[in-house]
């Protein structure tokens, strides 16, 4: 019985397996091959990004480039207006994601551990947000933004972005929070800790992998969000990266090489951030915190 | 459309939708608080205008420069916002949301036919008849183009582009297949295709991912089998589609796929890719408009002299081709419609059109530059002066157009016989007539 | 058994509700959520009972006509079937693959950070690029997939994958799986950190094989994660819109229409906002119904 129940005690002893020095060689080989296959479609994107547009137009996407160039990146930087869109997307990310994760964590904590009244109703309501097709809400959202004078403004995006991120974040976080053993929280309460202190010093640190996961997923969603940005923003000065990528389209033909370069410019930072953040999910960096 | 105010109020009181009420009221002009707030982009007699367009990166600066000139002459301040992309893309969605939200642009660019029609039908766009009289646009603009911007008798827009479609081909491909001159009849076109296939070349580079592009072939086949008069009546639903001429067109359409005169699996190919195949040497020709010279041939660093353009032979008089119109509309709630109309009049001046580098202007005296775009110039002087029939994705509302494309797709895949396809089309058109 | 009953007692003691403190935690998120999502959604709901065209100022109330028209719309039937197939395939495949990857990448493999990056990368790409890339790969004449088939002598299998009704949905689902594996992988990786390494060490000492450890330690330990991953994936699959819209535009014909795309086409392209909204309502109701078991499991005293 113990083996079945123990996993519910989420915490504490987590650490990476000691010294992975050897071992797993065959697994490594297999995984490398699978990974190469997995990433291979992306080769097309990269090749497209490093060939001249004339070569692409003259020979099509599936030919080997006659020459290579990095000029596309410089051009794409200007066409996509990245100096501006980067700044705008980054501002949104910084304003929105931590705030969104934090308020979602609060609600998740209330649902998972504070036995909030109408918890089930709240859960269904939260699910409602996940299931509603965004498209039918854009006109009312636009009207709200207009009434508040917040069209064509980054601030106007924060409300809808928070709202549409909350359901997903709450569901994931409450699922993780539920796994925290009540004994620890109870012990803290007996020691005189209030709900806030328990939340900030026990619940959040113990849930670092879940928080980082949600943070990554939400950051990616925010970085790539297209519909609300498209509908609410007008001027070039306020556009975000996904809207800026439209600049590579034309009515009759697309600047495919520029677009490929632009996409790489757009996603590389998020991939770098992911590479660093994933260590917080799995790297055992949470071990210190779990002593709480 | 008649008992709405009551129901809307009821609904608003149900949902307590103050914000939505404000928005809808702003559009309708019937709400209580619309008087206080300017409903369109700008207030009455305002010197501020907003123009919304879908110019891409290559032309947006030209537009901004011209608009600046207008501003300098008139003491106005005009904001130009652009959202590049095609008719199937996001531009109409954005425009619609802004209009519904009560913050629409004063002036917007739009395609003609059934893409522009809903805006006029919903009375979001202004009836421009009085400005046509004031500025004498009827005399300056191509009349067929004006028709493309006239909806149920309402002049809802000012056209400035008429795109005529011709067959653009690679001379190298024709040489390789031993073809000396473009075809003069549909029979000759078929012979030409057979020669190309024999030489190992895919004849027509067309794709139907969004329905459009490949329909350019079908509408041509329909023009050939039905002739101008019947073709027009079919498009307006005045004649039944369940008839031999239509069956013939579908039969020929299937034949093109079966004989490999089209690329394998053409229905799912992205036209943006396939249209360039004649430049890339993967197909002999395509059916497209003059933009292909700059954006296809010259973008690939190839010489216009190595390519050519001919009108698809129909065997009828007049020898028509497919075409579509683009123009501008004015917001029915524009704060200063006179100024907005003045801006449009400025845009359709031949000098402005030339400065905008419009290659197929609806305005006489704004032909493409002969030296830089020889083929476009040649086309504008020959076929470009001929009458055209409305391209099928603008001849029908989107819903009927999509059903039409679905029928075409089924025919190409052999899932529907040409005879059944004609019957199905008649059902589609009948359902449209009723609504 | 002592272990089993201990937490029960603890929870019983505080079955009282959290009261104001709990609402203090819940309110910020709930207010934003209600204001920017629930309210706009509900205010749109009304249009499903009207014949609104999505652009005009006026409309007529038509009661339930839009809903009663749904079953006789052949595209709705096609879309519902496609949604069902889509849900099964794009839930099962990514979840299973994501779980396998998470377990492997949590164990003894070299280059784990790089591998984790690679399997997650597709999820970060903008959909425009995903659609173009797969469109090029599937190109019947020049695409890499048919080229590979011909290279290994399977010429007969080379076909216009996206260009015929029979294969278009399947071809789209392959791209969806590619795109979506990263999400369950990430959640499972996080959940795996919650399983004590001591368990594995004890099991190894007892002579349990890796396979036994997986079934008796890993899988039960991931139970809460399974719930949330599957619930989110199912909902995601019901809502599918962007990928199909970008890859096939619902075609050829209507072969790959799903409820999400059909809703979009009606609201925005066909000027049938009332009818399209009714479809949106149906999508929401079905997805909510599917979520009932999950919510019940999460709100029970102890799952």
From TrEMBL, chain A:
The chain crosses the membrane at residues 29-50, 90-112, 124-145, 157-177, 198-217, 258-277. Coiled coil: none annotated. It is a multi-pass membrane protein. Residues 86-276 form the ABC transmembrane type-1 domain. The keyword RNA-binding does not apply. It comes from Paractinoplanes pyxinae. InterPro entries: MetI-like (IPR000515), MetI-like_sf (IPR035906). Keywords: Cell membrane, Membrane, Transmembrane, Transmembrane helix, Transport. This is Carbohydrate ABC transporter permease.
From TrEMBL, chain B:
The keyword Nucleotidyltransferase does not apply. InterPro entries: Bact_solute-bd_prot1, SBP, TAT_signal. Keywords: Signal. The keyword Signal applies. PROSITE patterns: TAT (PS51318). Pfam families: SBP_bac_1. Residues 1-21 form the signal peptide. This is Extracellular solute-binding protein.
From TrEMBL, chain C:
Residues 80-296 form the ABC transmembrane type-1 domain. Keywords: Cell membrane, Membrane, Transmembrane, Transmembrane helix, Transport. It is found in: Cell membrane. InterPro entries: ABC_transporter_permease, MetI-like, MetI-like_sf. It comes from the Bacteria. It is a multi-pass membrane protein. The chain crosses the membrane at residues 20-42, 84-105, 117-137, 168-190, 227-247, 273-295. PANTHER family: ABC TRANSPORTER PERMEASE PROTEIN, INNER MEMBRANE ABC TRANSPORTER PERMEASE PROTEIN YCJO. Belongs to the binding-protein-dependent transport system permease family. This is Sugar ABC transporter permease. It comes from Paractinoplanes pyxinae. The lineage of its organism: Bacteria, Bacillati, Actinomycetota, Actinomycetes, Micromonosporales.
């Amino acid at each position: 019985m113990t083996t079945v129940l123990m996993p519910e005690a989420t915490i504490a002893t987590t650490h990476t397996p000691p010294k992975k020095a050897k071992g797993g060689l065959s697994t490594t080989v297999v995984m490398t091959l699978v990974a190469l296959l997995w990433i291979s479609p992306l080769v097309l994107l990269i090749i497209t990004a490093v060939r001249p547009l004339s070569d692409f137009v003259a020979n099509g996407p599936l030919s080997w480039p006659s020459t290579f160039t990095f000029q596309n990146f410089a051009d794409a930087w200007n066409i996509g207006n990245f100096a501006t869109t980067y700044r705008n997307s980054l501002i949104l990310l910084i304003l929105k994601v931590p705030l969104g994760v934090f308020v979602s964590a609060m609600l998740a904590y209330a649902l998972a551990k504070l036995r909030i009244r109408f918890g089930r109703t709240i859960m269904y309501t939260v699910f409602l947000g996940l299931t509603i097709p965004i498209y039918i809400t854009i006109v009312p959202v636009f009207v709200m933004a207009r009434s508040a004078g917040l069209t064509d403004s980054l601030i106007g995006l924060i409300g809808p972005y928070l709202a549409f991120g909350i359901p997903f974040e709450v569901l994931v976080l409450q699922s993780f929070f539920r796994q925290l053993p009540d004994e620890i929280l109870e012990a803290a309460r007996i020691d005189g800790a209030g709900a806030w202190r328990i939340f900030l010093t026990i619940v959040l640190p113990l849930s670092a992998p879940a928080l980082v996961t949600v943070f990554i997923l939400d950051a990616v969603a925010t970085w790539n969000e297209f519909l609300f940005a498209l509908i609410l923003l007008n001027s070039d000065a306020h556009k975000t990266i996904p809207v800026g990528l439209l600049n590579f389209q034309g009515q009759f033909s697309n600047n495919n090489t520029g677009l490929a370069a632009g996409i790489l410019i757009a996603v590389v930072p998020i991939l770098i951030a992911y590479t660093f953040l994933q260590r917080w999910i799995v790297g055992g960096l949470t071990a210190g915190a779990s002593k709480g | 459309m008649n008992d709405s105010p009551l129901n809307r109020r009821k609904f608003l009181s149900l949902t307590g939708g103050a914000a939505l009420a404000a928005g809808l009221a702003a559009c309708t002009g019937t709400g209580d608080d619309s008087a206080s707030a300017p409903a369109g982009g700008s207030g009455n007699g305002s010197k501020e205008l907003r123009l919304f367009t879908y110019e891409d990166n290559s032309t947006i600066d030209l537009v901004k420069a011209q608009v600046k000139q207008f501003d300098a002459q008139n003491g106005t301040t005009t904001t130009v916002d652009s959202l590049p992309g095609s008719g199937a893309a996001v531009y109409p969605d954005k425009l619609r949301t802004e209009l519904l939200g009560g913050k629409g642009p004063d002036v917007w660019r739009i395609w003609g036919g059934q893409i522009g029609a809903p805006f006029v039908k919903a009375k979001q766009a202004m009836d421009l008849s009085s400005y046509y009289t004031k500025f004498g646009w009827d005399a300056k603009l191509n009349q067929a183009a004006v028709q493309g911007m006239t909806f149920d008798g309402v002049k809802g827009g000012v056209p400035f582009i008429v795109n005529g479609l011709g067959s653009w081909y690679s001379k190298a491909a024709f040489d390789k297949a031993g073809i000396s001159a473009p075809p003069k009849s549909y029979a000759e076109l078929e012979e030409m295709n057979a020669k190309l296939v024999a030489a190992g070349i895919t004849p027509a580079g067309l794709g139907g991912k969004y329905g459009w592009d490949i329909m350019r072939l079908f509408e041509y086949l329909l023009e050939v089998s039905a002739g101008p008069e019947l073709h027009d009546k079919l498009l307006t639903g005045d004649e039944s589609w369940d008839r031999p001429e239509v069956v013939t067109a579908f039969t020929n359409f299937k034949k093109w796929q079966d004989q490999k005169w089209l690329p394998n699996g053409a229905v799912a190919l992205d036209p943006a890719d396939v249209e360039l195949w004649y430049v890339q040497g993967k197909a002999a020709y395509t059916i497209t408009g003059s933009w292909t010279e700059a954006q296809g041939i010259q973008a690939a660093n190839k010489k216009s002299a190595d390519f050519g353009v001919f009108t698809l032979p129909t065997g009828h008089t007049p020898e028509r081709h497919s075409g579509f119109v683009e123009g501008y509309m004015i917001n029915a709630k524009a704060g200063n419609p006179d100024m907005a109309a003045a801006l449009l009049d400025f845009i359709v001046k031949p000098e402005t059109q030339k400065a905008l580098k419009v290659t197929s202007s609806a305005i006489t005296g704004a032909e493409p530059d002969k030296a830089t775009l020889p083929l476009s110039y040649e086309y504008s002087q020959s076929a470009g002066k001929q009458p055209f029939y409305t391209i099928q994705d603008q001849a029908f509302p989107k819903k009927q157009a999509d059903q039409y494309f679905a029928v075409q797709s089924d025919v190409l895949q052999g899932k529907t016989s040409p005879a059944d396809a004609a019957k199905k089309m008649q059902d589609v058109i009948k359902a449209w007539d009723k609504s | 058994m002592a272990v089993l009953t201990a937490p029960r007692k603890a929870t019983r003691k505080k079955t009282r509700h959290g009261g104001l403190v709990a609402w203090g935690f819940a309110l910020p998120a709930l207010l934003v959520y209600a204001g920017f999502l629930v309210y706009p959604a509900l205010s749109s709901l009304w249009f499903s009972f009207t014949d609104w065209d999505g652009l005009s100022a006026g409309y007529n109330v038509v009661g339930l006509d839009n809903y009663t028209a749904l079953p006789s719309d052949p595209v709705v039937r096609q879309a519902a079937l496609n949604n069902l197939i889509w849900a099964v395939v794009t839930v099962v495949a990514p979840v299973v693959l994501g779980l396998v990857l998470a377990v492997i990448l949590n164990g003894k493999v070299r280059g784990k950070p790089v591998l984790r990056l690679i399997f997650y990368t597709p999820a970060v790409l903008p959909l425009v690029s995903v659609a173009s890339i797969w469109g090029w790969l599937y190109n019947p004449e020049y695409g890499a997939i048919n080229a590979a088939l011909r290279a290994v002598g399977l010429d007969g299998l080379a076909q216009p994958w996206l260009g015929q009704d029979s294969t278009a949905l399947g071809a789209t689902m392959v791209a969806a799986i590619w795109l979506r594996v990263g999400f369950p992988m990430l959640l499972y990786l996080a959940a795996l950190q919650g399983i004590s390494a001591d368990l594995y060490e004890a099991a190894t000492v007892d002579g349990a094989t890796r396979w036994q450890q997986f079934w008796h330690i890993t899988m039960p330990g991931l139970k809460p994660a399974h719930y949330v991953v599957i619930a989110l994936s199912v909902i995601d699959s019901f809502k599918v819109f962007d990928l199909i819209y970008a890859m096939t535009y619902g075609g050829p014909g209507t072969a790959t229409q799903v409820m999400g795309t059909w809703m979009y086409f009606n609201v925005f392209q066909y000027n049938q906002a009332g009818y399209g909204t009714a479809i949106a309502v149906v999508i929401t109701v079905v997805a909510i119904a599917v979520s009932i078991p999950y919510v019940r499991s999460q709100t029970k005293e102890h799952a």
